[in-house]
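User: Hi! I'm working on a homework problem where we have to compare a predicted structure to a textbook description. Could you give me the structure for the chain below?
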Amino acid sequence: MARRKSWWRGTGLRIAVFVVGVAPAGLLLLDGLRGSLGANPIETLQHTTGDWSLRFVLAALAVTPLRRLFGWGFLAPHRRTLGLFAFFYVCLHLGTYVGLDLFFDWSVIAEDIFKRPYITAGFTGFLCMLPLAITSTRGWQRRLGRRWVQLHRLAYVAGIAGSVHYLWLTKADLLSPLVYTVILATLLGTRLWFRYARRTTRPARSLS
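Assistant: Happy to help. Predicted structure tokens:
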């Protein structure tokens, strides 16, 4: 029984995370081959990849609170995988916008980035995630040492930028972006609470 539980928390969960990560892209590819992406395929691709990039960012940010609150240490090894899937989908999201929507018209793209706030926020999120993906390996973690932890706090900025991008992009039904924003605020709030709790318990430990 213990061996089976260990397998599910290790190999089984690793497989599940991978399947969940590739499934949305696979379904999009299948729908594209079938011609089932709707009346505006490019918009469908942009919205779907954007949604999944934000979902994986939130999932990666949820690992630490879940680990500390419930003792689910087995989740920690999967945080990097979730983060890389987030970067994968944000690349698809950006690539659809740059390649399929604007056909690599760099002057229009640059104008959009500087003049449209929601695109500015989205591009900021991508720029934050780029160094995180590059330095996600153990080799970079050893090279950067403590600076690696500081650098990877950009994940918080990426999450905020992604949520703001979604909020500013949505013109009518704000329910979905607000749900994501509340989840993000909760995840960041728990981190602040952990930090405050750790600071308040230090004097007590020193006096004991």
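For your comparison, note the following. Residues 189 and 195 are 10 Å apart (CA to CA). The longest helix spans residues 2-34. Good luck with the assignment!
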